[in-house]
Amino acid sequence: MAILITGGAGYIGSHACVELLNTGYELVVLDNFSNSKPEVLSRIKEITGKNFTFYEVDLLSKEAIDSIFSRHDINAVIHFAGYKAVGESVCEPLKYYHNNITGTLNLCDVMNKHGVHDLVFSSSATVYGIPHQIPITEDFPLGATNPYGRTKQMIEEILRDLYVSDKRWSVALLRYFNPIGAHESGRIGEDPNGIPNNLMPYISQVAAGKLEQLNVFGDDYETVDGTGVRDYIHVVDLAKGHLKALERVLLTTGVDAYNLGSGFGHSVLEMVDAFEQASGQEIPYVIKDRRPGDVGICFADTQKANQNLNWVAEKTLTDMCKDTWKWQSNNPAGYTKTQDHVTSIQLAP
Ligand code: NAD
Ligand code: UDP
């Protein structure tokens, strides 16, 4: 019996692999490295001392997914694989709809064919769009405001329809807030391509001297200091949430959405201050106009996940900043090896 992890070479997937391996799960991992590097796989093995099977496979190839299910006794899937850049999704919507939705349809079709109906899906707080109230509960109306968010919202609806049609399906829709941080070892972390879009990787590259200064997008929101407020969650806490969700889908049926956040909001300037304290580095910044499409304040009500999944985010803002800095300073260029000694079986497309 094994758990299939799609997108397991990515930022959140790699941290989830560590937690799952440490708990004793047998893993089969797939990724097409469209936004990740093979080196992460040997780092996961190094941290855990455990082995797993990896396939360099694209979810757009149904035959390749089918071949994995034929080779392994898969009993559940954690589905991270997808594109995630909001701005890019606005410029290239078809690329996003095709990869995220067709990839998920292929996966679910093959799961169904092989009698596997337990699924943990990476959704996002972006499905809420502009929240009418704070904190956000799972029953808020959904209204994603960009193609990326709409892929998540559509996939949620598709997965709900699957359960309507076949009561064997058991699905957890995990709506992540703002994952940041890295594994405490400093061996795996977020490795964005080019100039980061998100706040935390941007701050850490300013701290490392790779970027000159932080642009703070707006200081006229109705928040504690006028800058945008978000719910930051340590990626290891988030990864542990997947273990809890997996345990639940294995025991139940139905489709349930869960907010995975800390339940607390922090402003951009609070994050700058926390990072300076944790790293001992100065973060020069300049106030700029608001970023188009941004909401002023967004944080989660996490009671449903706390109660139903028996999960709570435990790490502090200091942990998040310290671990981000450890990863950044130990790996200034991210993952750099072009070749790696991983057991990688490439399937024909
Ligand atoms: P990531 O880009 O680091 O990881 C995604 C992985 O999926 C990458 O390794 C990529 O190579 C792989 N992938 C993409 N398309 C694929 C395909 N067709 N076939 C096989 N592999 C494919 O992203 P992440 O930050 O780890 O996010 C994981 C999931 O969580 C994504 O679905 C993302 O949309 C969602 N999410 C992320 C955040 C965030 O802030 N990081 C927030 C909310 C939701
Ligand atoms: N932000 C910023 N400068 C940056 C990146 C982000 O001021 O270079 C702000 C952004 O306006 C928001 C917060 O930081 O208020 C978090 O942004 P991020 O893109 O990380 O997450 P999201 O907005 O998608 O929740």
UniProtKB/TrEMBL annotation:
<protein>
    <recommendedName>
        <fullName>UDP-glucose 4-epimerase</fullName>
        <ecNumber>5.1.3.2</ecNumber>
    </recommendedName>
</protein>
<keyword id="KW-0520">NAD</keyword>
<dbReference type="GO" id="GO:0003978">
    <property type="term" value="F:UDP-glucose 4-epimerase activity"/>
</dbReference>
<comment type="similarity">
    <text>Belongs to the NAD(P)-dependent epimerase/dehydratase family.</text>
</comment>
<keyword id="KW-0119">Carbohydrate metabolism</keyword>
<dbReference type="GO" id="GO:0005829">
    <property type="term" value="C:cytosol"/>
</dbReference>
<dbReference type="InterPro" id="IPR036291">
    <property type="entry name" value="NAD(P)-bd_dom_sf"/>
</dbReference>
<dbReference type="Pfam" id="PF16363">
    <property type="entry name" value="GDP_Man_Dehyd"/>
</dbReference>
<keyword id="KW-0413">Isomerase</keyword>
<comment type="subunit">
    <text>Homodimer.</text>
</comment>
<dbReference type="InterPro" id="IPR016040">
    <property type="entry name" value="NAD(P)-bd_dom"/>
</dbReference>
<dbReference type="InterPro" id="IPR005886">
    <property type="entry name" value="UDP_G4E"/>
</dbReference>
<dbReference type="GO" id="GO:0006012">
    <property type="term" value="P:galactose metabolic process"/>
</dbReference>
<feature type="domain" description="NAD(P)-binding">
    <location>
        <begin position="4"/>
        <end position="324"/>
    </location>
</feature>
<comment type="pathway">
    <text>Carbohydrate metabolism; galactose metabolism.</text>
</comment>
